[in-house]
Amino acid sequence: SAVISQKPSRDICQRGTSLTIQCQVDSQVTMMFWYRQQPGQSLTLIATANQGSEATYESGFVIDKFPISRPNLTFSTLTVSNMSPEDSSIYLCSVEAGGPETQYFGPGTRLLVL
Amino acid sequence: SQKIEQNSEALNIQEGKTATLTCNYTNYSPAYLQWYRQDPGRGPVFLLLIRENEKEKRKERLKVTFDTTLKQSLFHITASQPADSATYLCALDKGSNDYKLSFGAGTTVTVRA
Question: How close, in Å, is residue B113 to chain A by CA atoms?
């Protein structure tokens, strides 16, 4: 299993600004993912955070808008850049750990953009 | 296009009854399907995984079936309790061999005492 923490837990931001979300895991993991969950909707995968190389983005998500860092096997950041109200969402990181195909999720970061 | 559909409406049931949730998918060929529980303000918690060659899986009061012909999974909570009240999400692997998941929108279950 894995214990995941995220910072901040919530934030209110002004449009045009950027916010960096941190994800910390209590053990070394290979696979780390970032998801978005908009109100009343399903989780949507943004990207896979790769250690030592650029993140792999899903269709509809680009590095300029959502730059990701993964400096080591226990930590990653997601930045939401040049925010607009449409970016208001819950952002979650997850890791694959403790058994094949099992993902563990962080508590999420609730972002409101005004 | 690819789609994952779960019960469109919330489920309200009496304590002790069985809750049955549906997950239907189109244009996926998943090697496995998972069910997660999500409580308000929290991240999803993994419950069960069932592989394409498995018909049924059980864990305590939970039972999952997987019919790849019908492209459907059923999730049952037997002898339901108020503590089972939550949103339940089904997730499919994207078939890309890299643990990426696609999620349904979830079904909210409320168990009345």
Answer: 26
